[in-house]
């Protein structure tokens, strides 16, 4: 399960999710070519909307951490 940091007024939920996933990618939890959890599944696990997780995934793709297929 993804552990996101505690609320911080300067950071949005999307940015906290993005940073947590980046940490997992760079830490080897998700090696190259592996699949991340579905946006629906991760949203349910975190108690956020699917739109929030999708925005985080889109940000990660824009930064080159993910490749959508």
List key phrases describing it.
69 residues
Structure, explained:
With 69 residues, the protein is mainly α. The protein has one domain (13-62). It has three helices and no strands. It has helices at 13-26, 39-46, 50-62. Helix 1 (13-26) crosses helix 3 (50-62) and helix 2 (39-46) crosses helix 3. The longest helix has 14 residues, at 13-26. The model has no long low-confidence stretch (mean pLDDT 89).
Topology:
Layout: H1 13-26, H2 39-46, H3 50-62
CA-based gyration radius: 11 Å
Structural class based on helices, strands and sheet pairing:
mainly alpha
- First and last CA, distance: 22 Å
Principal-axis shape? globular
Query: SSE order in H/E notation?
Result: HHH
Count of individual domains: 1
Assess the beta-strand content as a share of residues. Answer: under 5%
The average pLDDT score comes to 89
Profile the largest sheet.
Answer: none
How helix-rich are the residues, as a percent range? Answer: 40-55%
Low-confidence stretches: none
Count of helical stretches: 3
Number of DSSP strands? 0
